[in-house]
Amino acid sequence: MSKFKKVLIPVAIFLLICFFTPLSGKLYELLVGYSLSSGFWGTGHPEYFEGFFISYSFFVTLAMTIFGGKNKYHILAVLLLIIFIIQLGSLESLIVSIGTAVSAWLIAQAILIIKKKISKK
Is the CB of residue 45 less than 8 Å from the CB of residue 25? Predict the structure, then answer.
């Protein structure tokens, strides 16, 4: 992978996580069924806290599965374990983040299968 891609992919993932954090927080509120409190951070938008975890789980899993090298699953496990340990206090948040990581992995597998079929032709 070129140096440009090594820089561009993490920057793009960071921007996607930041952009989708509020949307993911609203999704979390819809899934769980109650409004979030401001919690420890005391932000004006409490959905940013839970939304960050969901966005992070989705986009890091998607990117590592598609663009990762031969140790992609080891790196992915470490990156997700960090967030999952932080979420141990909130079981609902942990379950939603694991679900989004699994869905991102399935989407990435489908993309890799399509990419393999297209490259054979």
Answer: yes
The full set of domain ranges for the chain reads 3-120
CA–CA dist 1, 6 (Å, integer):
7
User: Rounded to two decimals, what is the model's pTM?
Assistant: 0.83
Task: Give the number of other CB atoms < 10 A from CB of residue 9.
Answer: 16
Both tokens assigned to 98: 């694991």
Residue 72 neighbours by CB distance under 10 Å:
15
Write the pLDDT tens digit of every residue in 87-112.
887 788 888 889 999 999 999 999 99
C-alpha–C-alpha distance, residues 7 and 62, integer Å: 17
Token pair listed for 13:
């993932």
